[in-house]
Description:
Blueprint: H1 12-23, H2 28-31, H3 35-40, H4 47-57, E1 78-79, H5 92-114, H6 132-143, H7 156-169, E2 173-177, E3 179-180, E4 183-187, E5 195-198, E6 205-209, H8 214-230, E7 234-236, H9 247-260, H10 263-271, H11 273-276, H12 283-291, H13 295-304, H14 310-326, H15 337-345, H16 347-358, H17 364-371, H18 375-386
Parallel strand pairs: 1-7, 2-6
Antiparallel strand pairs: 3-4, 5-6, 5-7
Helix pairs in contact: 1-4, 6-9, 7-8, 8-9, 12-13, 13-14, 16-17
Amino acid sequence: MAKRTAQVSINKKVLQWALSRAQKRGNLDLYFPYWKEWITGEKKPSLKQLEKLARLARIPFGYLFLTEPPEIRLPIPYFRTMKSHYKNHISDALIETVKIISYRQDWLIEYLMSLGAEPLDFVGSSRSTKDAKIIARQIKQKLALDDNWGKQFNTWKDALGFLRRRIENIGIFTFFSSIVGNNTRWPIRVEDFRGFVLVDKYAPAIFVNSSDSVSAQIFTLMHELAHIWIGKSAAFDLRDLAPADNPLEKLCNRVAAEILVPEKQLKHDWSKIHLTLKGNENPFTHLASVYKVSEIVIARKLRDLNLISKKEFQEFYRDYQQRWKTRRESVQPGGEFYRTFKNRLGEKFSSMVIEAVLSGDITYREAYRLTGIYGETFDEFVKKTLRGEI
Length: 390
């Protein structure tokens, strides 16, 4: 006689909540042929099916036995630009990515303290000032940036790489990715979030959504850097690179704009713009290429300085929005796996994990959990890193 599989009763609202989450990532009919009957009560799921449902919905198994669907919250503030029904929506991608980076940060803090590291003096050093120029000047001094730093690079990508190296060299960990963890089937949309920062005295961590345009990534990176100087963790969407209606977010945006496009230098370049334009070249496009930022950052700063009128800004903005809709900067699929992977982790974090595992300070199993790659793949990653191939 065949053994009967035990069936389990769970709260209907919790079941519908879990199925709704799972449906975003797979065909329910394929995974659970009788899921509709579960809802009507005609059939009940087995424990194995519930375990599969929890994995697909990316929730702890125990959540399925609650009496009400849980309210999943972020451990940090989330600032949204637009006041709409999206305001209170927090994407699963953001929640999971914050969890991943928090786990890495917790390990970094413990490891750095075990090595006798000192707390970073710049973290929270600007919390008492609301002057964006002062904060921008302090950050630029720490990074050894002059007002013309961006003009030495031919591409936004080169400028971003330069900034990232400078930032990691002073003790900040940076992570760039367009997917959650290493799951290529779980992309992070720009609409979900542009970035977040987890502030800590020993291991401040910045995450940037690399599915965004490179110029926007640069601005997000600077915005997050301002958060570290002010000492406040946060996540944000920076829709159209505009801040949420919050004093802290507005200040961080002004700091980022001042670092990337110094007021004094911009005024000088704007006064000479007619001498540098070629043919029918757009002045905003030209200056964006000079400063390695988005055109919208240039236009907004020019408007803030009253160098262009409200009408001129609105005309630019309409044109910018139209071009953005028809010609988004494409992200090339594929690429060399190990190089892409190291870019997600960052040079500083990669080196620290490799150093820890080779010295015996952590086990290989711990290294696997920290990086998300295992066995021979991890070994090859270590070899390529040590040989300087990636």
